[in-house]
Specification:
Blueprint lengths: L2 H10 L6 H4 L6 H9 L1 H12 L8 E4 L7 E4 L2 E2 L1 H14 L3 E6 L5 E5 H17 L8 E4 L4 H13 L3 E3 L6 H11 L3 E5 L1 E4 L2 E4 L1 H8 L8 E5 L13 E3 H4 L12 E2 L3 E7 L7 E6 L1 H13 L9 E4 L6 H13 L3 E5 L10 H9 L3 E4 L1 H10 L2 H4 L8 E5 L5 H10 L7 E4 L33 E4 L13 E5 L9 E2 L3 H8 L8 E9 L5 E6 L3 E4 L2 E4 H9 L4 E11 L3 E10 L1 H8 L3 H16 L8 E5 L12 H8 L15 H10 L3
Parallel strand pairs: 4-17, 6-7, 6-8, 7-14, 8-11, 11-12, 16-17, 16-18, 18-19, 19-20, 29-30
Antiparallel strand pairs: 1-2, 3-13, 4-5, 9-10, 14-15, 15-23, 21-22, 22-24, 24-25, 26-27, 28-29
Helix pairs in contact: 3-4, 4-11, 5-6, 5-7, 5-12, 6-7, 8-9, 11-12, 14-16, 21-22
């Protein structure tokens, strides 16, 4: 579709709130007014009405040590009790909590009563392994019900979990385990990916090889029955330890600010940040947003969030939000094209999924595969669609609405971050007139502004600035694990201590909608996964052949951005690279090296061997120019370069056949 066709098509659409959804929507226009009048009182009401407290809180927000927030001070609750037990006590034990679908077609239906048994058994097992309140537990698991049981068992014991995405390498696992000083690692022998058993446990072995100072036990779920190495005394099978445990376990109330989990995310330096979240505020926001943004009605909806539990979306919108609300959800282990490209639509048809929450990169992939694939399935159960992870381009938005949403389901384009804990900017189904491509408006209770370079808020349309959050919110990160200074510096210094700097560019349109424009820092967004240029650069430089490296995120039709690297070789390797065929071998070796150091998701799409990198006179690499090259654009202003001829060489090299 040309841009012109697209805008005339958009102009013809009626995107006002559907009456059918509005009649029964959890979100209302009145919530905005209520929150605007007194946002603390608004959040206090959400927290009291949505959660079950062992002890009510006194102070809603203590901001006296800003930017370190304390929410719902004095209150106590248990997260696992809120996500499981109370639903059973309320008579909903027979309601399905999880429809699990394995990649190979094996499935399990787990009711809330069964989930309660699973969580209690797992909590008892972790206790037997010596886990007590405050201990950290690292989790490196596939998308299987045991992952949910593990997270909830940790929450039940007050042992913060640190989930590491299964696509991360042993090296990445090691730094994360060490940083959090995890006492126990929960993993599986492997996971099913594209019909094959992909190993997991070997990465844990490698990460702990050479001795970890903190890890005492490794609990291993048998999933793929692959042959794995075994360390006697350290490794324990899940079925040996967990299955025989008692299903009785008394949840202990935790203070509102007790740490719930740590989740590592890429920042602008090479070292990943351990973002940490606490108990009550996080849960209140996860439950509230899942209710008003996804419009979950637990008694009638079947909800499906396709994220991996290794990312924040999986934490907030598979585990904590939907379960706190008592929802029924689908959990799918595998890839969308196994055994065929209609797998997701088959799952929607099978379980009558009514709410689907996924990422633009997946939608663009389905667009490429063709409209005829979803058309073969009955998707009439769908009533709300969601998007997260990166801006959704209007074309993908329209495709999603038409082919998956039956031309009528509202799409909630939800902007948020690992750091924010829950959704921050999004339309509300049944309330908002939609604007394809825009996340539109802060949800009730959240305040955002756009600042110019001088830190002044503005509201003019089409002027590009920086998104900031102007008031604390319950689900906000409480810091970076072990590094309070870095927390202040990263988020609360760019525009002074009044503003949380999100790291995203943004603008308003003529109607006052907010459009998110991508990161303004050295963080890339590849298929909705955050990757830091510095982290990949340091992985490249850790290879003996590489003297210096620069990495940029280049726009990519399917993945949003792709990793493009430029590397200067050490002199001993320059000759080798020049020889016939050797250069290609070396590039492959370097790509694999990045996969080994960080994980396959970080593998550069291309690596260009260069003689020089463009630098300013003060020695700073000008990534902007490299990005021009990577995106096949005319190279921009080079006048600040120390040596302006460098860019000619690089551009010529890029155009040469590889
Ligand atoms: C980007 C994922 C535009 C943004 C929940 C943010 C988005 C980063 C959107 C956080 C959206 C996420 N529109 N951009 N709807 N959602 N982003 O921590 O750049 O993995 O800063 O959290 O993703 O990524 P994270």
């Amino acid at each position: 579709m040309t841009d012109e066709n697209l805008s005339s098509h958009l102009a013809e659409l009626d995107l006002s709130p559907s009456e059918e959804i509005a009649a029964n929507a959890n979100g209302t226009e009145a919530l905005y007014a209520e929150a605007d009048a007194d946002y603390e009182a608004f959040w206090a009401r959400q927290a009291r009405e949505r959660l079950t407290w062992s002890t009510d809180f006194g102070t809603t927000l203590d901001w006296s040590e800003a930017p370190f927030a304390k929410w719902f001070v004095g209150g106590e609750l248990n997260v696992a009790y809120n996500c499981v037990d109370r639903h059973v006590e309320a008579g909903n034990g027979d309601r399905v909590a999880i429809h699990f679908e394995g990649e190979g077609g094996d499935s399990r239906t787990i009711t809330y009563a069964q989930l309660q048994d699973d969580v209690c058994r797992t909590a008892n097992a972790l206790t037997e392994l010596g886990v007590t309140k405050g201990d950290r537990v690292a989790v490196y698991l596939p998308m299987i019900p045991e992952a949910i049981a593990t997270l909830l068992a940790c929450a039940r014991l007050g042992a913060p979990h640190s989930v590491i995405f299964g696509g991360f390498s042993a090296e990445a696992l090691r730094t994360r385990i060490d940083d959090a000083e995890a006492k126990v690692v929960v993993t599986a022998d492997g996971q099913w990916r594209r019909g094959k058993a992909a190993p997991l446990k070997p990465a844990v072995d490698a990460a702990l090889d050479g001795g970890s100072t903190s890890v005492e036990k490794v609990l291993v779920v048998r999933r793929t029955e692959s042959e794995i190495a075994w360390t006697e005394g350290r490794d324990i099978w899940w079925h040996d330890l967990v299955d025989g445990q008692s299903t009785e376990h008394t949840p202990e109330p935790m203070e509102s600010e007790h740490p719930l989990f740590i989740l590592y995310t890429s920042g602008t330096t090479g070292k990943p940040k351990g973002i940490f979240h606490t108990t009550a505020g996080y849960l209140a926001q996860a439950a509230y947003t899942n209710s008003v943004v996804h419009d979950v009605h637990p008694e009638s909806d079947v909800y499906w969030c396709t994220a991996d539990i290794g990312w924040v979306t999986g934490h907030s919108y598979i585990v904590y939000g939907p379960l706190a609300n008592g929802a029924t959800q689908v959990l799918y282990e595998g890839t969308p094209d196994t055994p065929h490209q209609g797998r997701w639509w088959e799952i929607i048809e099978k379980y009558k999924v009514s709410i689907l929450y996924t990422a633009p990169t997946a939608i663009r992939t389905f667009m490429k595969w063709g409209d005829d694939i979803p058309a073969k399935f009955d998707l009439s159960s769908i009533r709300v669609l969601g998007s997260v992870g990166e801006p959704i381009n209007p074309e993908a938005w329209l495709w999603y609405r038409k082919n998956i949403g039956g031309e009528k389901a509202p799409i909630v384009d939800t902007w948020w971050q690992t750091e924010t804990g829950g959704i921050m900017i999004s339309p509300l189904p049944g309330v908002t007139t939609l604007e394809p491509g825009s996340a539109q408006r802060p949800i009730p209770g959240i305040s955002a502004e756009i600042l110019d370079d001088d830190g002044k808020p503005f509201t003019e349309a089409d002027k590009v600035g920086y998104l900031v959050l102007t008031k604390p919110w319950p689900g906000m990160l409480r810091g970076i694990w072990g590094d309070p200074e870095r927390y202040k510096e990263t988020y609360w210094s760019r525009f002074g201590e009044k503003y949380y700097f999100a790291g995203d560019g943004a603008k308003y349109d003529q109607k006052g909608n907010i459009w998110l424009l991508g990161r303004v820092d050295d963080v890339m967004n590849v298929s909705g996964h955050r990757l830091s240029t510095a982290e990949i650069e340091s992985a490249l430089v850790s290879h003996p052949a590489v003297a210096e490296a620069a990495v940029v995120g280049a726009s990519d039709e399917t993945t949003g951005q792709a990793v493009v690297a430029f590397a200067i070789l050490r002199s001993e390797y320059v000759e080798r690279a020049d020889e016939e065929g050797e250069g290609a071998d070396l590039v492959k070796e370097l790509r694999d090296h990045v996969a080994k150091e960080i994980g396959p998701i970080a593998k550069p799409r291309s690596i260009m061997i260069v003689a020089e990198l463009p630098k300013t006179r003060s020695g700073k690499i000008m990534r902007r120019l490299l990005k021009d090259v990577a995106e096949n654009r005319e190279v921009g202003d080079v006048t600040t370069l120390a040596d302006s001829s460098v860019m000619n060489l690089i551009s010529q090299g890029m155009k040469a056949p590889s």
